């Protein structure tokens, strides 16, 4: 019996609804397999915690999370707490504190879910987007001077370090190598940005020699959006900067049906700290409490979590169960269906047990 301890941070909005659903299917999976024990500890951090305590998580929060094998995260965001507080106060503190520098976003069209792209079906689009998660355009460097005056200047400085770029590109090559097509696309904007972006290109070229069996190419981010829409079959693993991958993965999410199915993993590839697994979507206040949040993204990120823990068989079993629920047409309203969160959870649980 292999045992894992997992910190659950459901946080805000629909976060608790989808994390509940995720824990339910993971418990069914563990029980059904019999070789796996998952122990969940709940943390009530988030916007309600902030309203009571003035912080999104306690000062020793990272210390308390450090001993876990993984973090299962819901969503942050509240109507009455500013976005920079909710985001920086919890999620980004964990990402940065645990140096989760690789943000990994699998994207594919699941059976039973239609893409807005004509002629594109399940299997035609199967990507993993690797987003640099620790520096770049979101470094926070910059400033504003002469506020409000005609001569005001605002600057956001992109910071790319050789260490930071090498490690994310190496991670992406390794991931591409582990996938059947062994195909990597490195995205930059090195025609217009002549410093950090050119360094990305040079580092990609250098690291490619460590992976002679991986076929790779370079794309400018603007041309990349066109290729994603017009030739989705030509792509497999994609690596890009913090900003570029942020934008490309929203596009990818739209091409695969709904934000409600898109998962993401914040990985510390060196395994010094726990990695964090979450749906891409936010707290979705418009549907909170209605019982109709799509739990698929939260199930899929659990597949990523199991893979990261080395439980590949269990991960495959859960992924197949998710696909079976889609095939059976058990879909929430964001995907044009009528099912509730609970019905999708039951359908996936039944599929794990081999009942549908
Ligand atoms: P945040 O600032 O917290 O990221 P947001 O307003 O940017 O929030 P989301 O909360 O992700 O965005 O929601 C965007 C839209 O997608 C909303 O209309 C929401 O209802 C819908 N949505 C997001 N996640 C889901 C889900 N799991 N199931 C169904 N609909 C969803
Ligand atoms: Mg958002």
UniProtKB/TrEMBL annotation:
Required cofactor(s): Mn(2+); K(+); Mg(2+)
Keyword Metal-binding: yes or no?
yes
Q: Signal sequence: where? A: none
The Isopropylmalate dehydrogenase-like domain sits at 5-348
Give the keywords, sorted: Manganese, Metal-binding, NAD, Oxidoreductase
Catalyses: tartrate + NAD(+) = 2-hydroxy-3-oxosuccinate + NADH + H(+); (2R,3R)-tartrate + NAD(+) = 2-hydroxy-3-oxosuccinate + NADH + H(+); (2R,3R)-tartrate + H(+) = (R)-glycerate + CO2; (2R,3S)-tartrate + NAD(+) = 2-hydroxy-3-oxosuccinate + NADH + H(+)
Its pathway, per UniProt, is:
Carbohydrate acid metabolism; tartrate degradation; 2-hydroxy-3-oxosuccinate from meso-tartrate: step 1/1; Carbohydrate acid metabolism; tartrate degradation; D-glycerate from L-tartrate: step 1/1; Carbohydrate acid metabolism; tartrate degradation; 2-hydroxy-3-oxosuccinate from L-tartrate: step 1/1
In the Enzyme Commission scheme, what number(s) does this protein have?
A: 1.1.1.83, 1.1.1.93, 4.1.1.73
- Domain of life per record: Bacteria
Q: Record's Pfam families? A: Iso_dh (PF00180)
Q: Does the keyword NADP apply?
A: no
Molecular-function annotations in GO:
tartrate dehydrogenase activity
Looking up InterPro entries in the UniProt record yields: ICDH/IPMDH, IsoCit/isopropylmalate_DH_CS, IsoPropMal-DH-like_dom, TTC_DH
Function per UniProt = Has multiple catalytic activities. Apart from catalyzing the oxidation of (+)-tartrate to oxaloglycolate, also converts meso-tartrate to D-glycerate and catalyzes the oxidative decarboxylation of D-malate to pyruvate.
User: Which protein family is named in the record?
Assistant: Belongs to the isocitrate and isopropylmalate dehydrogenases family.
This chain's protein is named D-malate dehydrogenase [decarboxylating]
Q: What is the lineage of its organism?
A: Bacteria, Pseudomonadati, Pseudomonadota, Alphaproteobacteria, Hyphomicrobiales
């Amino acid at each position: 019996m292999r045992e894992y301890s997992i910190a659950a941070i459901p946080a805000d909005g629909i976060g608790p609804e989808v994390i509940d659903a995720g824990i339910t299917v993971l418990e069914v999976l563990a029980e059904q397999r019999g070789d796996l024990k998952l122990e969940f500890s709940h943390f009530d951090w988030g916007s309600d915690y902030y309203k009571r305590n003035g912080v999104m998580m306690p000062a020793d929060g990272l210390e308390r999370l450090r001993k876990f094998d993984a973090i299962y995260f819901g969503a942050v965001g509240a109507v009455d707490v500013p976005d920079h507080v909710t985001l920086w106060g919890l999620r980004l503190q964990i990402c940065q504190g645990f140096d989760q520098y690789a943000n990994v976003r699998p994207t594919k069209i699941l059976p039973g879910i239609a893409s807005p792209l004509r002629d594109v079906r399940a299997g035609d689009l199967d990507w993993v987007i690797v987003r640099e998660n620790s520096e770049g355009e979101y470094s926070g460097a910059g400033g504003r001077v002469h506020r409000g005056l005609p001569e005001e200047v605002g600057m956001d400085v992109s910071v790319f370090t050789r260490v930071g770029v090498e490690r994310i590109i190496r991670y992406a090559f390794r991931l591409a190598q582990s996938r059947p097509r062994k195909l990597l696309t490195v995205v930059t904007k090195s025609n217009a940005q002549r410093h950090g972006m050119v360094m990305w290109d040079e580092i990609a070229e250098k690291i490619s020699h460590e992976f002679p069996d991986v076929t790779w190419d370079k794309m400018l981010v603007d041309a990349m959006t066109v290729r994603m829409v017009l030739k989705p079959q030509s792509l497999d693993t994609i690596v890009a900067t913090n900003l570029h991958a942020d934008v490309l993965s929203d596009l990818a999410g739209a091409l695969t049906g709904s934000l409600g199915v898109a998962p993401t993993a914040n990985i510390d590839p060196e395994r010094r700290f726990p990695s964090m697994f979450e749906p891409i979507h936010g707290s979705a206040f418009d549907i909170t409490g209605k019982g109709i949040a799509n739990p698929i993204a939260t199930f899929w990120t659990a597949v990523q979590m199991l893979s990261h823990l080395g439980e590949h068989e269990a991960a495959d079993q859960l992924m197949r169960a998710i696909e079976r629920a889609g095939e059976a047409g058990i879909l929430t309203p964001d995907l044009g269906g009528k099912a509730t969160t609970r019905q999708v959870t039951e359908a996936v649980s039944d599929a794990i047990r081999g009942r549908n």
